[in-house]
Amino acid sequence: MDINGDRDKTSEALREEGRAAEYCAAVGRGNPRNSDPENVCLESKDYFESSLEHIQSQVGWIDLVIGAAIARARWLQQEDSQFQGLYISEHEVDALLQRPSGAPRWWSQDQGVSRELELKLQAILRQIELRKQESLRRGVELRLHNLQGLFQLDQFETNVLLVCLLVELDLRYERLYAYLQDDVTKKRPSVGLVLDLLSSSVTDKIDGRKRFAANAPLFHHQLLELFEDPAQPHPPLLAKYLKVDNRVVGYLLGSNGLDDRIHPYVMRIEPENRPSETLLDDHIKRRLNILLQSRASDGRLVVLLKGPYGVGKRKTVEALCNDNGWNLLFVNLERLVDDADTSFETTLSLIYREARLQQAALYCEGFDTLLNEQNEKWLKTFLGNLEGRPELIFLAGETLWEQTDALRGLSVIPVEFSIPPPEERMRLWSAAVDGVSQIDANDDISALASKFKFTSGQIQDATVTAANLARWRDPKTGRMTLRELYEACRLNSNQKLSILARKIKPKYQWNDIVLPTDRVDQLREICNYVKYRERVYGDWGFDRKLSLGKGLSVLFAGPSGTGKTMAAEIISSELGLDLYKIDLSTVVSKYIGETEKNLSRVFTEAETSNAILFFDEADALFGKRSEVKDAHDRYANIETGYLLQRMEEYEGVVILATNLRKNMDEAFVRRLHFVVEFPFPQENDRRRIWEGIWPVDTPRDATLDLDLMARRFEISGGNIRNIALAAAFRAADDGGVVDMRHLLHATRREHQKTGKVISQHELEQGET
Q1: Angle 155-169/51-76 helices, nearest 10 degrees?
Q2: How far apart are CA 58 and CA 657, in angstroms?
Q3: What is the pLDDT of residues 432-477, one digit of tens each?
């Protein structure tokens, strides 16, 4: 350490018997045990018992450096100290003119160097280093040492950090720094002061400026903050002030709490003192464990985890970190991106720094958020910050992202988590409801596992929801039944589909529909197809024979009012699955490519909703492909081809309804599993419809001639329903009992809607 000063005065000060006491007293430390600076602030032990003791030892060394500077400044001060820092005297102007560029304030023309002091300060550093090494050998955590290694700080940068740390430990250093800077308002160390204290020469001082560049470790990792005096805008670098980041101060003093600036987006998960439980994807955990143990020496690894919610991505990583004794930081990327008040890049940098301080792996949930087109700039920022980061990072989402050359310098491993197979879902359901339900038959659990392709997390969520429903319906016992489980499954299915489609609540049962026996048998076969799908595809091996077309696609064709929508509701009720009717107005778009995008969203959401898709008037979407005569024909055919592809890929239930069977594209018809024709009802069927249309509580005249109505009026079930309802309202208005007059009047109104005319003679015959 080369500290310049007036040779006669500084030599006299250094040769005094109590020179070490002078240095320590200058910073208020009191007298050391003896006058030898080599022993100042050191203890008799050969190691540090704690991290704080190590920091205090390093701070003691900085005390001596500051004390030496203050002693020289005091010896050189010739003006009235009462006005020091408040004005510039003539003598000081002369001294400034004589001082070489870059020299500290306490420099004098005689550039004698206190070699003795420099040697003693170096000896103290060697003692501190020996004690540090012994402490590390004994397993003592030294956070200042950790900070140096984590952020690759050299000794000079560490000393800069310590000089700035002093004011965080004791406010009296503010006054000492103001004294050294000859200004009572300059209470924080400036870049110039730090360089003066720690540089051995003017050359070293100039070279030290690079430590304060934006890409230097101290600032790249935000360990120090550089700020300006508001009263002095746009100052030179040497006049800017330094402050240790609050989180870094807390870390050095032993705090493990998260940085307040990242707290809304990050959660810390510490390892437990016991092995993790066996997980659904335990085989993936084992493979990841082998991969991490054998990773490259630089430790830079990014793992892309793809899979739907609840499939076990986070639990697998938590178990992996727990078994290896690693901390884990859980990061909510979606919340971070949505927070408009937060600087994404700055917060991301703080998160990475926290991972280093905590020596933790990162688990970034919601990576899909960055893959949206509107978030492209955040994705570039995120990927750019990954470069050069040594942390182990897991990126979790539902989409398997294809990496670009932006991550060329990293090892990126894609890992896909799939929905558990039926037998595994069966086991998960059995374990979830064991002891808390009245479900005894395996067939009931098997039906749940087959109909709802739930992940482990979704099964747990559905079980909790079912338990809450059961407690509400039966507060005494709270025992759940299959009814609560089915309702809970529907509630826990993805509800985003309701944005694109209208959910229909089924109201009809098998005895409500009137169809020929063969058609009813077809509808029951459709239900059996869903009920026993897993047995045929899984247990009997048909899954290995088919690559596409594992879902169920059905066409209902027939005139309006013949029961197509009713049949879809009955199937939904029988299977316990939600029924969504696709609103064509929200799907079909005049803009090229938009219809395909909307349909893609429909099918994607339906995959996770475990829902039945019902396309009414499907010929508008699934119509015949035509000969290409212009661009409109070409794009219309592209839409039809795209729909055909999505129908084959979809593994759920799709019901198409059309009034015009002949308008359907034959390529679709060949790929359908069922085509159910809904015929116009004959007299016997109409008679059954007339009889079943009336609610039990509706008052009816005993003379109602339903045989006459079925024989004389050839109308569909939908028309019969409308007539019965209109007759009931007319009866409520004038008598309270439905009779033939009301039925015939309502029949005439119904025919008027369709443009048909019923003569007065026909009505009079009906009344008689």
Answers
A1: 90
A2: 81
A3: 887 666 665 555 777 788 778 888 888 888 888 988 998 888 888 7
The closest alpha carbon to 355, from 268, 469, 470, belongs to 268
Compute and round to an integer the Cα radius of gyration of the chain: 41
**Residues 390-430 pLDDT 10s:** 678 999 988 767 665 556 666 778 888 888 887 888 888 88
Contact 100, 202 (CB under 8 A): yes
Query: Comparing C-alpha atoms, which of 519, 743, 536, 547 is closest to residue 648?
Result: 547
User: What does the angle CA 361 – CA 363 – CA 368 come to, to the nearest 5 degrees?
Assistant: 150
In 3D, which of 51, 363, 339, 354 has the Cα closest to residue 222?
Answer: 354
Domain coordinates of the chain in residue numbers?
A: 4-252, 266-416, 422-492, 510-677, 683-767
Following DSSP, what letter does each residue of 581-629 receive, concatenated? EE-HHHH--SSTTHHHHHHHHHHHHHHHHT-EEEETTGGGTSBPP----
Q: Which CATH number fits domain 266-416: 1.10.3210.10, 3.40.50.300, 3.30.230.10, 3.30.300.20?
A: 3.40.50.300
Beta bridge partners of 413: 303
Ordered DSSP codes for 739-754: -HHHHHHHHHHHHHHH
Decide if pLDDT at 17 tops 70: no
Contacts of 578 (CB under 8 A, 6+ apart): 490, 493, 503, 572, 609, 610, 611, 612
Dihedral (Cα; 532, 536, 537, 538), 10-degree rounding: 90
Query: Residue 641 corresponds to which tokens in the numbers above?
Result: 């081809």
> How far is residue 603's CA from residue 501's CA, in Å, rounded to a whole number?
11
Structure tokens at 215: 């890409």
- Amino acid 606 reads A
The pLDDT assigned to 109 comes to 46
Pull the structure tokens for residue 614. 């019902």
For residue 450, give both structure tokens. 């087959």
pTM of the model: 0.72
Instruction: Calculate ∠ Cα 586-590-595, nearest 5°.
Output: 50
Same fold, 266-416 and 683-767: no
Superfamily per CATH, domain 510-677:
P-loop containing nucleotide triphosphate hydrolases (3.40.50.300)
Task: Report which of 322, 316, 329 is spatially closest to residue 361, judged by C-alpha positions.
Answer: 329
Structure tokens at 308: 């739907």
- The label of the residue with tokens 């006054």 reads 175
The class (CATH top level) of 422-492 is mainly alpha
The pLDDT of 40-51, averaged and rounded, is 70
Question: At 225, which helix (H) or strand (E)?
Answer: strand 224-227
Q: Give per-residue pLDDT as tens, 651-696.
A: 888 898 888 777 776 766 777 888 999 999 999 999 999 998 999 8
Helix (H) or strand (E) holding 442: helix 442-451
**Distance between CA atoms of residues 711 and 681, nearest Å:** 11
CA dihedral 543, 548, 552, 554 (to 10 degrees): -150
Query: Contact at 8 Å (CB) between 40 and 64?
Result: yes
Q: Which class is 683-767 in CATH?
A: mainly alpha
Rounded Cα distance between 262 and 348, Å, is: 8
Distance of CA 510 to the CA centre of its chain: 45
Cα(first)–Cα(last) distance of the chain, in Å?
124
